[in-house]
Specification:
CATH architecture: Alpha-Beta Barrel
Distance between the termini: 17 Å
Structural class: alpha/beta
Shape: globular
EC number: 2.5.1.3
Number of domains: 1
Cofactor: Mg(2+)
Strand order of the largest sheet: 1-2-3-4-5-6-7-8
Number of strands: 8
Low-confidence stretches: none
Function: Condenses 4-methyl-5-(beta-hydroxyethyl)thiazole monophosphate (THZ-P) and 2-methyl-4-amino-5-hydroxymethyl pyrimidine pyrophosphate (HMP-PP) to form thiamine monophosphate (TMP).
Pathway: Cofactor biosynthesis; thiamine diphosphate biosynthesis; thiamine phosphate from 4-amino-2-methyl-5-diphosphomethylpyrimidine and 4-methyl-5-(2-phosphoethyl)-thiazole: step 1/1
Oligomer: single chain
Strand content: 15-25%
InterPro entries: Aldolase_TIM, ThiamineP_synth_sf, ThiamineP_synth_TenI, TMP_synthase
Length: 203
């Protein structure tokens, strides 16, 4: 995975039609769009992927969270795994065509994910965020230490604003992931452009 990637993750709170509308404005700035919809059926996810593609997001930049079967059936580029998902090694064996990412919360989890064949890990939350109330942020130094332990790319997530891009990249991250900061912004296209510009300006 190339450095300085911008990952956008669906919030699970928006109708798919709204996601598709946002996609028309943000797709040119986004490296990966994660369809993270825990309550949706496989058929609903397939329909959402069709909407995203019709709005300009190519399949090779779509990632389906948790559902490797849907990702493979839809021709998406990859799957992103959580703690409750199939193991990285199992997904790699069953769906070798998919790029596999894994959410991690410690250096040990990152090392294990890399050993199992993960193509990248996502680590956070780096800064305080309303999506993780009451949980302390891990901070830049923890990101730096984790990134130094693995050879695969690390995508930072959690409370990251465009002005934070330089510090996050300098700590060793390959990119950032954003949810509501883009998709629930008043102008998603302008918000995505701000993150994109920050990523490429700061380093």
């Amino acid at each position: 995975m190339d450095t300085k990637e911008l990952h956008v993750i669906s919030t699970g709170r928006q109708p798919f039609a709204d996601l598709a509308a946002a996609m028309r404005d943000i797709h040119r700035f986004v490296s990966c769009f994660h369809l993270r919809e825990k309550t949706k059926t496989a058929a609903e996810l397939m329909a959402a992927i069709e909407l995203l593609q019709a709005a300009g997001m190519p399949a090779e930049r779509i990632v389906v969270n948790d559902r490797a079967d849907v990702a493979a059936a839809a021709g998406a580029s990859g799957v992103h795994l959580a703690y409750h998902s199939l193991s990285v090694s199992a997904v790699k064996r069953l769906f070798p065509q998919l790029r596999v990412g894994k959410s991690v919360h410690s250096e040990e989890e990152a090392v294990q994910a890399e050993a199992e064949g993960a193509d990248y890990v996502m680590y956070g939350h780096i800064f305080p965020t309303s999506s993780k109330p009451g949980l302390p942020a891990r901070g830049i130094e923890a990101l730096r230490l984790l990134a130094a332990r693995v050879r695969i790319p690390v995508v930072a997530i959690g409370g990251i604003k465009p002005p934070d891009a330089g510090a996050v990249l300098n700590a060793g991250a390959a990119g950032v992931a954003v949810m509501s900061g883009i998709l629930e912004a008043d102008d998603p296209g302008r918000a995505a452009a701000a993150y994109y510009d920050a990523l490429y300006r700061e380093v």
